[in-house]
Amino acid sequence: MKKNYLIFFLFLLTYSSIAQNAPLINATLEGKVIDQKTKEAIIGASVSIKGTTNGGLTDADGKFYLKTGQKLPFVLVVGFVGYTRQEFVANTSKVTIELLPNDTELSEIVVVGYGTQERKNLIGSITKINPAGVSNIPVGSFDAQLQGKVPGVQISSPTGVPGETVNVRVRGATSINADNDPLYVVDGVFINSNSLQTIGTGGKATSPISDINPADIQSVEVLKDAEATALYGSRGANGVILITTKRGEFEQAAKIHVNASFGQAKAAKLWELTTGPEHAQLVNEWWINTGILDPSLKRTAANRPFRPVADGGRGLPSEQKTYDRLSEAFRTATLQNYDISLSGGTKTTKYYIGGGFNSQESILKPITFERQSFKVNLDQKVNDVLQVGVSNTFTRTYRNQARAGDGPQGGVLQAALHTPTYLSPYNETGELVGRAGFDNLTLLLNNYDVNSSSLRYIGNLYAEAYLLPNLKFRTSFGADYNNYDESEYWNTFLLLGAQGGLATSSISQFTTLLNEQTLTYRQKFGLDHNFGVLIGNTLQSDVLNRTYAEGRGFANNAFTVISSAANRTSTQSWSKSNLASFFARVDYGYQGKYLVDFSIRTDGSSRFGSDQKWGYFPSLGTAWRINQEDFLKDVGFIKDLKLRASYGQIGNQNGIGNFAAQGLWTGGAPYQGNPGIAPQQLANPDLKWEKTSQFNIGLDASLFNGRLSFELNYYDKYTKDGLLQLALPSTSGFSNYWSNVAEISNKGFEFSIQSVNYQSKEFSWTSEFNIAQNINKIEKLSNPLNYGSRDLILQKEGYPLYSFWVYKQLYVDSKTGDAVYEDVNKDGKITVADRQIIGSIWPAFFGGLTNTVQYKGFELAAFLSFQYGNKVYNHNKFFGEGGGARDAARVIFASNNARWQKEGDITDVPKPDGVNVNNYRDGGSRWLEDGSFLRLRSLNIAYNLPKKIASKLGAEALKIYVNGTNLFLISNYSGLDPESSASSDQNAQGIDLGTPPQPRSYQVGVSLTF
Amino acid sequence: MKLTKYIIGASLVISLGSCSDYLDVQPLESISDTKTIFDKTSSETAIRGVYSALADGNYYGTTFQSIGYLSGDNIQWTGSQSQVQEFINKKVNAENSTISGAWTAIYRTVNRANNVISKVPLVSDPLLTDALKNQIIGEAYFIRALSYFDLARTWGGVPLITKPTSSPLENSGIARSTQAEIYAQVLKDLDIAEPLLPLTTDRFRATRKTVWALKSRLYLYQKDWAKAEDYATRLISDSNYKLLKPFSSFFANEARGTQESIFELFYSSTETNTHRGQWQPQTNGGTRQWAPNDALVALLNDPKIGGGRSTLIAKDNQNRWYGNLYYRTPATDPSYIFRIAELYLIRSEARANLNKLTDALTDLNAIKDRAAIALSLASSKESILLEIENERRLEFALEPHRWFDVVRTGRAAEVFKVTDVNRLVLPIPSNELLRDQALIQNPGY
After folding, report:
1. Which residues in chain A are closer than 8 Å to B20, comparing Cβ atoms?
2. With contact defined as beta carbons under 8 Å apart, do A737 and A680 qualify?
3. Which residues of chain B are modeled with pLDDT < 50?
4. Does the structure show a pLDDT above 70 at A27?
5. Which residues are within 8 A (CB) of A705 and not within 5 positions of it... i.e. 6 or more apart?
6. Which of B82, B173, B204 sits opposite A672 (nearest CB)?
7. Is any Cβ of chain B less than 8 angstroms from the Cβ of A674?
8. For B200-243, how does the pLDDT look when each residue is reduced to its tens digit (9 = 90+)?
9. pLDDT of the residue at A13
10. B318, A427: Cβ pair inside 8 Å?
């Protein structure tokens, strides 16, 4: 209100000055700009005369000089970063203007568990992200867009397919068999983040997070330490991601916002393969070398496979042709995105209505992703004490899918990448044929018919009432309804459908229902004491229901629905879990200097043994705002300095079976068409919560009036009673059972810094940098566990999760051409005992750097993300560098050309032969590579049209932008993308097999506000 | 304010009205393991569960069978899964996924059988007659015997588990018995099963005759020639079993349960047999992971040697040979465990070793006659035994015999060039060694 008076007053002054017809001067106006608090000069502040282009900057003494033809008095507009922009009425020359430091940064509202908090009062470790800066990255889901933005949160995209699952790890991973994914909360609803996909697409899986239109998101808060996550008790061990969607404002005129963009995406590079002649040469060498080592095989130069056709061979190597399939499978993909929203409010109602359409082709044919979203948020003040509201998100995503990963049939990359290049796609009679056991690529691409559609509703209905002015009651009912419908049709041109066609249909429904009550009380006692209490409860029920049908044998390719199949089979599954929770938080602040809070949550889960259902998760946090102390109050350059510490314990039960604690027999063991029963799972009545204790200490500082601020955190997480499918000796008749035996630790630093490097009226340059380190270690695990193809991953006590277990290739003997491996146990033989752990998927550090430069209406933002020190197993190359052993069954990579051929050759690629298994051994370290990278994640150039021009076009604001992603990738990795990982099994990460890389893309767009 | 009260009231009723069994959610797809086998129906369904384990893709469905023929000299690797080549090269690593799959599937079968053996005798349901009860228990004993027989011939001595597992601590940490002890257990189980089972003919379930077939094979492996001959004779002289002509009669044209068959596993369009996928070429919806090698193709296609057995293989549209014993769509091909032809060859071999050369030749020639090739005129024991070996190679070209046959006759060095005797049993899967300290690896691995 004060501000309004001021404006009114200024208006009057201006009006009266015109009326008075004050004398015209043409002289120098002198002045000085100082800090109101410290009275120190402010350097570089912008001073201009309102309504003119006349202006300048303050000098090293904070002084400015303006030549003006204006009449006194007039209005000066003075601004500087970190200070409230001010209008000053100049009556005479030689003025002193005091600027008031602004606290917008410190009073920024941060969403915390069951409430909001001003940043200056935060105790926990929470990162708030405004997603607008990255929302142009064309990846389908907002979590993938945040890579490199949140210190301590490692985000990687295992495939380059839009809308596929993304690995998000908040401060490492805490569990082997329970989920390591964070909890996602959208407007108070705990949403499903597990893919409902059932059809096999080679380890890839669609992401349910991509059902959320990034354009509808107002802010994302990542809760990391125990203090921040404790109120999510059972769910918070892997961090919590709070998503707040956009809402209207009371008493705001209707605003329409439109954003449209178009673009293209392309693979930055593709695999390098041998030519036909090179392939043939390698196979011949392998053949002859094999024959020398094992004469009983009778393999000689005379009967080598690639010998003249006249001799019954396939033709000499030089006669082989080369067929390029990769460029048929990859394309320049088109991207488009349109968002429109309407928001505003009256005195008692506020609304936000948003609609979005996003359509992206994958660079790999025929994959597409399309999302149509519709959002309505509504809040209504019923009377002075009661407010009700709803949040609704309706989304439909539609995907053309394809098998990109491993698995021979129907796989696009199998047909395109793994088929030997010398093999023609045509047979002698000119028909298209599949080779090497894979489909024919052309037939595959023309006949692919695998698609899925997801129908999603996320909604929340709340009512909140002030029972007393400082006592608020809130109740809400939330729902997350996922309907995921998939179908496949493989016609007779395709291998899977070769026998009369194959159709499948699967419908999965996952429903979360949520009810929640909270009571919040806040009271100030005198000036010094600030006291708050929150109590609440939650009931949550999850049901997964799935129906699957399959049909084989169709009359012809025109019939594609299961009802017309000769053989039809179907199955159904149902599973449910319930969770009941109670929670409370007490916080107290003294003089705004000393802050402390304590919270506790107790959760009961239906998944655990009868006596172990309830878990108790307490946390304690404190903060000390040091700059509020007398001894720092006068230190001008420190705007804020806060030391935080917290300790707490949080639980995890996600990812385990709904009936994991029970001993079960299955009814699914039929014989001769009659039902059969059989043991399925061993009981563990003691199965209980996995518990993670976390200690966090942090320092927040804001210096030089907010021009430089940083945050530093150290954390130490220790997980006990880790949920594990403990492997049992198979002699028991079971493979494993659910237990609480693993212990895992994560320790690390996080550092982030924001800096305004240069600021003037027309030009500014800001930087944000963050870096984090996480040291993960399995502290206790009775028996090591193998995961991944060829046991490439070993989980072993004393080592990080997801360590690579390989035979270490030392060198290739330049005399014999044989690979020499490290004989760890020195028994003269290379056996499984010689496998060793070399590296893991964890980087030594990772982070991001954003630089933003603004000049007049132009804005340039460059965002780099990086990680260093992690390993990737290049499984594509393992297959592709098979030394000819797979002959016509697999492609050979160009890297195999570097093989040893004759004595004296120095190379790390051994001689091809089929006898010495060591030379191209499964699990050799030759394919374990450094996965460090630096990526130009996004480069954004925007131009904001001057308001005058925009308003001529009828808009309040108009922005035109160009955006590029992945414009460069610096990495030693010899594959396409060091983030690639084929398997959706969380324990088999870091194995790159048959996934398309993240594309390089370019987009142009326009954003309009009316 | 009234409205506010209603809202608070309603929300409290919902949140606090939930009762204590809110956290007690039971599955609908499974039953508790505290009450499993207790009446006639549950006894019958439990024994079907044991057959289902026997028919699993990792046991007689595909994986275990593949060990028997891939390790021989008939099959070449034509796919991408390099563990296949380890068998063909006779250099199987302990990490080989085929052996761990088979090991796990066989012990799962043993555990299911153990459940039936220990629980069905305790069932008191008037509807469960003694005859039916005995039959169910006898079938479980037979399947357990077959399982241990397969374990012993593949890995040598293995841990002997005869009680069902009901908690994680049971049935692990048990040291390996010797191969002889396991074979003794097989015989013991067969002796128990024999009187319990009816003397009927059922080609899909175990009967007393099925027990005889396994006894005959067991005695052959143990070189107890007289007993091998005796049990083989009991089946050969049974008119329910016949060598059908032509050779393909027992599998071609979607045949199942023919008179050739003593014991085969049943598959249907809902309980499919994945075996065809490894053999059939891509144009028939398979992966042709492996295929008959040139030597076998030549032998089978030689009318004087292969005869009617050339129907085991066929050519695809790229002129490549593939095995065609498992070919049906949907994949309902039976898995053949005992055919009467095997009993002829067992008896022939037993008789030859007993120096009943004429009788031996008669049995051998019954097989040759059925294959429509010239009869043998061999006259010495050695030449008859060699002919039996070669006949078995073709008669069971795509069935799991070749490796075990050549190993048991001690001719692996000569035939397969495997001179290291340690290589005659396969390594214990490496992941099992990690899980159970009591397991000790076979020497040489």
Report:
1. none
2. no
3. none
4. no
5. A35, A80, A81, A82, A83, A101, A637, A639
6. B204
7. yes
8. 999 999 999 999 999 999 999 999 999 999 999 999 999 999 99
9. 38
10. yes
Q: Which residues of B touch A688 (CB under 8 A)?
A: none
* Domain B36-197: assigned CATH number: 1.25.40.390
Tell me the three-class secondary structure of A761-796, residue by residue.
Answer: CCEEEEEEEEEEEEEEEEEECCCCEEECHHHCEEEC
Q: pLDDT class for A232, splitting at 50, 70, 90?
A: confident
Q: Which residues contact A982 (CB under 8 A, 6 or more apart)?
A: A158, A202, A203, A204, A405, A406, A875, A988, A991, A992, A993, A994, A995
> Which residue of chain A has the CA closest to B32?
A664
8 Å CB contact of B166 and A427: no
**Coil, strand, or helix at residue A438?**
coil
Measured in whole angstroms, how far is the alpha carbon of residue A872 from the centre of its chain? 19
Per mean pLDDT, which range of A609-613, A873-877, B370-374 is the poorest? Answer: A609-613
Which of A732, A797, A878 to probe the B interface (max B CBs under 10 A)?
Answer: A732
Nearest CB to A465; choose among B7, B49, B171: B7
| Partner B, chain A 849-908, Cβ-Cβ below 8 Å | 879, 885-886, 889-890
**Predicted local confidence at residue A595, as pLDDT:** 92
Instruction: Quote the CA–CA distance of A218 and A352 in Å, as a whole number.
Output: 11
| pLDDT above 60 for A855 | yes
What is the number of residues in chain B?
445
pTM as predicted: 0.83
- Of the candidates A459, A482, A461, A463, which has an alpha carbon nearest to the alpha carbon of residue A473? A463
B136–chain A nearest CA distance, Å? 13
Question: Looking at residues A111-132, what average pLDDT do you find?
Answer: 81
Domain A2-99 class? mainly beta
For residue A40, pLDDT over 60 is answered with yes
Q: What tokens were used for B92?
A: 């199987």
Q: Which of A649, A626, A630, A189 is nearest to A391 (CA)?
A: A189
Output DSSP code: residue A827: S
3-state secondary structure at position A722:
strand
Q: Which of B31, B89, B289 sits opposite A665 (nearest CB)?
A: B31
Q: Distance between CA atoms of A769 and A291, rounded to whole angstroms?
A: 59
Adjacent-strand bridge partners of A853: A765, A860
Closest to B322 in 3D by CA, of B274, B278, B256, B272: B278
What's the pLDDT score for residue B315? 93
A665 with B32: Cβ contact below 8 A: yes
Q: Is B38 on the interface with A (CB under 8 A)?
A: no
Are the beta carbons of B114 and A733 separated by less than 8 Å?
yes
Least Cα distance to A134 among A848, A868, A910 occurs for: A848
Cα separation, B179 vs A582, whole angstroms: 59
Chain A contact for B41 (CB, 8 A cutoff)? no
Q: Which of A671, A796, A919 to mutate to test the interface with B (most CBs of B within 10 A)?
A: A671
Q: Do B32 and A659 touch (CB under 8 A)?
A: no
Find which of A518, A731, A797 to mutate to test the B interface (most B CBs within 10 Å of its CB): A731
Confidence class for position A14, pLDDT limits 50, 70, 90: very low
Domain boundaries, chain B: 36-197, 267-333
Using one digit for the tens of pLDDT, what is the confidence trace for B146-189?
Answer: 999 999 999 999 999 999 999 888 888 899 999 999 999 999 99
List, as ranges, residues 422-451 from A with C-beta within 8 Å of B. 427, 433-434, 437-439
